[in-house]
Amino acid sequence: VRPAAFSGARRRNRGVGRRDRHAGERGGGRMTPDEIEAAGAALFEAEQTGRQIGLLTVAHPDIDMDDAYAVQAAFCERKRAAGAIVTGWKIGLTSKAMQQALQIDTPDSGILFDDMHFDTGATVPAGRFIQPRIEAEIAFVMKSDLSGDISRDDVLAATEYVAPSLEILDTRILRKDPDSGAPRRICDTISDNAANAGLVLGRERHPVDAFDLRWTGAIVARDGEVEETGLGAGVLNDPAMGIVWLVRRLAQYGQGISAGQVVLSGSFIRPIEAPSGCHVFADFGTFGSVDISFG
Question: What's the CA gap between 238 and 215, in Å, rounded?
């Protein structure tokens, strides 16, 4: 069983969340269907209880990216079955530095749900997340569907607006194996819904061509101290290209992005730890700002 792509809110009655049955045989993966389902169930329980599970790359040393996306699909199907509604996508590992750290040459992706959205200026309730971190990104909100072998121009034409945003990362899987010291690897991250846990959109809304997104960036501070700075060009040289990559990946499963969905195009900063009691503020200059506190 290959990984599922998920339809958007406007396609809720057309099998949102089901694993794609038309993608053919699982190619090269080492996990059995039962193991995939068990891993998805364990991740869902970890999110509900706040108790992390062990590294899948330790439990299943031969896990590959097909397996990992299948685990992600099983995890997200349980969220959907519990009532969560798909609202979009996140793209991760878009910078060369992060790809080199994980010894990969491709981004990854995860699924956004309605229970992940926070208003700018809000406070995340204490205990909501396990080990939250923050990334700064440019969010795209789509006005029309995207599928197939698209181009950058197609992405721009399908975008209703862009906005400053923060992504909240979390880790339902341990960051490091306690016995061997082995760190999380790419297949752990993908399985864990690409470490996606929340998003915060700024109030500002801009036409996609109002700014040069390569030169749009942010100064990100935690409790008044600048932690990271970055530019949109750090995302595959152009944030819109992250969405091109995502749509082409989804096309392998006959899926795409739906009108009304939010797409987090990828972070241009390193993740910032967000411990309880902290406040994170991202200043995007004339593009806007966005902030979040943690209780």
Answer: 9
Q: Which amino acid is at 293?
A: S
**Which residues are CB-contacts of 231 (< 8 A; sequence separation ≥ 6)?**
214, 215, 216, 217, 268
DSSP secondary structure, 159-221, as one string: EEEEEEEEEEE--SB-SB-TTT-PBP-HHHHHHTGGGEEEEEE-S--B-TTSS-GGG-EEEEE
Query: What's the burial of 180, exposed, middle or buried (CB within 10 Å: 0-12/13-18/19+)?
Result: exposed
Cα separation, 262 vs 31, whole angstroms? 31
Instruction: Identify the three-state secondary structure at position 85.
Output: coil
How many beta carbons lie within 10 A of that of residue 142, not counting itself?
Answer: 22
What are the pLDDT tens digits along the chain (295 aa)?
Answer: 333 343 333 333 223 333 433 222 344 458 999 999 999 999 999 999 999 999 999 999 999 999 999 999 999 999 999 999 999 999 998 877 677 767 777 899 999 999 999 999 999 999 999 999 999 999 999 999 999 999 999 999 999 999 999 999 999 999 999 999 999 999 999 999 999 999 999 999 999 999 999 999 999 999 999 999 999 999 999 999 999 999 999 998 889 999 999 999 999 999 999 999 999 999 999 999 999 999 9
251 — alpha (psi -120 to 50), left (phi > 0) or beta? alpha
Cα–Cα dist 68/163, whole Å: 30
> 2: which DSSP letter?
P
Best CA proximity match to 71, nearest among 30, 25, 39, 26: 39
123-124 sheet: strands from edge to edge: 123-124, 289-294, 279-283, 217-222, 225-231
Phi-psi label, residue 248: left if phi above 0, alpha if psi -120 to 50, beta otherwise: alpha
Stretch (H or E) spanning 66: helix 65-81
Name 250's Cβ contacts closer than 8 Å, sequence gap at least 6: 5, 147, 256, 257
